[in-house]
Each structure stands twice: as C-alpha cells, then as structure tokens.
Amino acid sequence: MAAATKTFFKPPLSSVAKSITPSILNSTKLNYTPHSSAKRLPSLTIRASATAVTSPSDGASQPKSPEQFRVEILSESLPYIQRFRGKTIVVKYGGAAMKDPKLQASVVSDLVLLSCVGLRPVLVHGGGPEINRWLKQLNIEPLFHDGLRVTDAETMEIVSMVLVGKVNKDLVNLMNKAGGTAVGLSGMDGRLLMARPNPNSAQLGFVGDVDRVDPTMLLPLITNGHIPVIASVAADEAGQSYNINADTVAGELAAALGAEKLILLTDVAGILEDRDDPNSLVKETDIAGVKKLIAEKKVAGGMIPKVNCCVRAIEQGVSTASIIDGRVQHSLLHEIMSEDGLGTMITA
Q: For the residues 295-301, what does the mean pLDDT come to?
C-alpha cells in the first residue's frame, strides 16, 4: 500500500522572490578565493551587480530592473537550493548580529527565505547584552570567570526571564512578521536538553553543560516547515535551571538532529592564520588542521570553544561546520547560497 500523502504549504515563487530585498541584491556579489573541497558546488556564484542588459530591438544597453535581478538570483540559486532542500541547518545567533537592528533584520529575513525554499533552519540563541542590561537595571553587577558568566541563583532567575521570556519571543515575533512560522522553545521544553553542572561550578554557579539531547519534540516542527527558535537554558534531572553556552547547545543539537550544516554567527571573519592580519582568513580546513592551529596557538581565547564545538559536532556526524562573520548583512545567504561561503568551513 502506498504511503499516505501529506500536503504542506508551499509559498508561491513570487512571495519568495519578493523576500529578496534590495539590501540582499546590493550585497550578493561575491569575490572569494574558492574552497578546494568537493562540498562546494562548481563554478557558480550569485551575481547581482550587473548594470545593463542589451535591448533586443536596437542593441543598446539598458539598466536591469530589480525584477530582472531577482529572477537572475533565483535561477542561479537553484543548485544550492537543490543541494540543501530538506536538510537541517542549525544556526547559532549572537554577537553584533543580535545587537544591530539592521543585522538582526537580515538574519531573520535570511532564515525565513531559507525556510521558504525548502531548507530546515533551526536557530539557537543566547542574549548576553540583554542579560547585562537587565542586571544593571536591577543594580546587579555582571561577573565573569574565564569568559563565562558567573550565575548565582538570583542571576539565573534573570537569565531565564530574559532569554526565554523576552529575547526568544522577540525573535519569534520578528520571524512571524517576516512571513515565517517560528516556534519559541528553551532546552527545558519537552526535555529537549538535559543539563549537568559545569566542572567549574564552584566558581561559576549555575552554568551548565549539555548532558543529553532528546530532539523528539523538534522533529515534527521541523518536518512541517516551522522554524524552532531555542533559548540556551536547560534544567537537570532535579529541575535546577542552568545557563548553557549557546555555541555548545547549537553543536549538540546539530549532532542530535543529524544536521547537514552547523553555522556559528560571530563577531570575527572566521579563523585567521594570523590573528593580527584580517586578510589571513582560513577559508577551509579539517579537524586535523584545526587541532594543528590550536597547538600552534593560532586559535586562542574565545575562538577555542567555538572551534571545539564545531569539531565535536562534526565528529558526531554533522557534515560541515562554519564560523562566519555575523557583522556582514545576509551572511547566512552568502554562506549557504554561494560558491565560496563567507567565513571558515570545517570538514571531517
């Protein structure tokens, strides 16, 4: 007997085309040194900077209209849409992209567009700046130890309120206004994440690590075209809440979901061969190459946990992980829908 057929909503092509805004058009000319990996599709680059088209009647050049740009972009995006359609992409959202309204709008529109053309994005977020703002309003001084927030019981309560009750719902609202169907969750919902104390809990308080992931509740949401938006807060078996690093949550979720790609939006261009030279971007490397960069101290500081998160995700089956510059508008589209990507891609 043939399996029952499910009907899902598919937006008309015109609605997808309209979502490619002028800001996307103005930022999609890509000029990068090509990746060497076969993971990238051959010889195709999104172009949106052509300025003229030849008239069939008199041979004269005429400016291209925005509609022509949209059609060109959509047609050239087809191989990338085909490659990633139906695949899960986990995105960690934070840094400048979270603080700047224009960058925030570009991330939201990118995620909605990717969902409209058949990809299955999952967004994981923190919210450090917003937490700091509320702590200061309550006359509580934010404290950090080795780059991690010291989280006592009072701070943990505020972290939960801000991440789950405000930041998460603000993001869901923005995505829904942009035409997506986002669902806001935290690690506590449906026991999606179970937490355990960080080994340095004596100094850090209620800062946790991911003990295990149960993606059961996420799967029907993703399959039916919803965009899960997940706050990086979870509880342990006793019900104690923990603040967990959003990079870690994104990596563990990507592995549990069998994601095609993990993307970390950061405030740097990616991994640099020379930290003092912004032009020394490592476009692509593998796990062995990353470990070599760490051993040579070319990867240090706050980049180490991000890189380790990517490595752990790949070792658990995620195809590729990318660290990209969230300060660039529409960086997600650049990374997924272009020949060369935008930051550093790590492979197995």
A: 86
